Amino acid sequence: MGMRVLLLLGLLVFVIACGPSEEDIRRIASEQASAVLTAVPTPTPYATATPQPTATPVDVQGIADNRIALALTAIPTPTSIPTATPQPTATPQPTATPQPTATPQKVVDWNAVDLQNWHSVFMVETSIGQGTGWLISSGYILTANHVVAFDSKATIRTAFGAPFSAGVAARDSKRDIALLRFETAAAQLPSSVVPLSLGETSTLNNAQPVMLLAYGGSGVKSEGTVGAPRARVGIQSQIVGFDSATLGDNIELDMIVSEGDSGGPVLNGQGFVVGMLRAFDTSELFALAVHENEIRNALPTLLQGQSR
Predict the structure, then answer these.
(1) Rounded to whole angstroms, how far apart are CA atoms 73 and 57?
(2) Neighbouring residues of 282: CB distance < 8 A, sequence distance ≥ 6
(3) How many angstroms separate the CA atoms of 259 and 261, rounded?
(4) What's the pTM value of the predicted model, to 2 decimals?
(5) What is the domain partition of the chain in residue ranges?
(6) Torsion of Cα atoms, 120 then 121 then 126 then 129, to 10°
(7) Exposed, middle or buried, 136 (CB in 10 Å: 0-12/13-18/19+)?
(8) 3-state SS string over the chain?
(9) Burial class (CB in 10 A: 0-12, 13-18, 19+), 198
(10) For labelling, which of 38, 130, 222, 304 has a CA lying 20 to 30 Å from the CA of 15?
(11) Separation CA 219–CA 237 (nearest Å)
């Protein structure tokens, strides 16, 4: 289009130089301008751009909220723990009354009791048989009166040497007790032979064990000695009270005894004499022993040489 304007201007200059009139020049210029303008091609209009769809705005916050909501939905709802059923209150129980602690009972070593006392127990021989006696004090032996019966003396045998003689010093026929006296120099007893001590027993001691040392069933050796007395353990079952004018108090024993045991000492677990064997019943397996109280009460009179 710039070139066309230049050509038009050049033509105008040419016309002016040739001398046309001002009106011709205006006419000619007008015609030339129209031609030039006509010759200018109409510009092709550009195609209108197809409008693009408006972008949908993205709701970022909404998407995030939806995802969070979905995530929370996926979490399982916790199962509620059932409320515990209240239990009835326990009825208070009465407090137990404390029981007294049982006094521990000492276990008796009967072997020790035997070893401690058997040296002081002897075999007593008379014209009617044999029995057992035991040292009550220096030079004196106690035995059952029915062992010596009507004899005035007896032969005493031990495990330590030759036998020796003892005379009947006094007797208590009611209580079945006889006191024998001997010469200590003639007996020549060892120092292990010591008097046995009297103890105590009562109904509180029922069902407690006791030991009898006696020579029932024992024989005499060729040299005239005897072995140790036999030890028999039984039970004090009860105290039997007879008329004091006759038999007095006696201990009933659950114990197997035999002939020759009469006059033997009955010892408790501490080694004290609580009785002296006087009778037994082999069919019912029980025996009777003179109670220690009867022995204790009879001794003063017997030591004075008085009999009854």
Answers:
(1) 27
(2) 256, 258
(3) 5
(4) 0.66
(5) 110-303
(6) -170
(7) buried
(8) CHHHHHHHHHHHHHHHHHCCCHHHHHHHHHHHHHHHHHHCCCCCCCCCCCCCCCCCCCCHHHHHHHHHHHHHHHCCCCCCCCCCCCCCCCCCCCCCCCCCCCCCCCCCCHHHHHHHHHHHEEEEEECCEEEEEEEEECCEEEECHHHHCCCCEEEEECCCCCCEEEEEEEEECCCCEEEEECCHHHHCCCCCCCCCCECCCCHHHCCEEEEEEECCCCCCCCCCCCCCCEEEEEEEEEEEECCCCCCCEEEEEECCCCCCCCCCEEECCCCCEEEEEEEEECCCCEEEEEEHHHHHHHHHHHHCCCCC
(9) middle
(10) 38
(11) 30
Q: Does domain 110-303 have CATH number 2.40.10.120?
A: yes
Assigned token pair, 170: 């006094």
